[in-house]
Design a protein that fits this description.
Layout (H helix, E strand, L loop, with lengths): L2 E6 L4 E7 L5 E4 L2 E4 L9 E10 L3 E9 L5 E12 L10 E4 L5 E6 L1
């Protein structure tokens, strides 16, 4: 089973670690959707800016506050009212797979 670690590159903080898959960290459409058990930081803060996807529905943007007080604006998001077809994204923190401030390590 493949496990991955996701780091915030500017400060090296571990954001998430867990198995790649439906019950851990789900890779979907170029993003990682992180289950609560795999989230290893408390740095994500809701900034209350809403968003809408025509087929996944409503989400809220998240800023990331690192340990040194830096803020990475809109690094992630969380679907609070998703399309029921995409149940696996409900209330998970999501980050883009190819963000410049994200580093992903695969542990095979």
């Amino acid at each position: 089973m493949t496990r991955i670690q996701i780091y915030h590159e500017p400060d090296g903080e571990l954001l998430a670690e867990g198995p790649l898959g439906l019950f851990g960290i789900t890779s979907f459409e170029g993003n990682y959707y992180i289950s609560k058990g795999c989230l290893k930081t408390e740095g994500f803060r809701t900034n209350w800016i809403p968003g809408f996807c025509v087929y996944k529905f409503f989400y809220i943007w998240l800023d990331f506050l690192d340990r040194d007080g830096g803020r990475d604006r809109m690094l992630g998001w969380r679907y609070f009212l998703p399309n029921p077809i995409f149940f696996f994204i409900f209330l998970r923190v999501a980050v883009p797979q190819h963000a410049t401030s994200i580093s992903v390590h695969r542990l095979d």
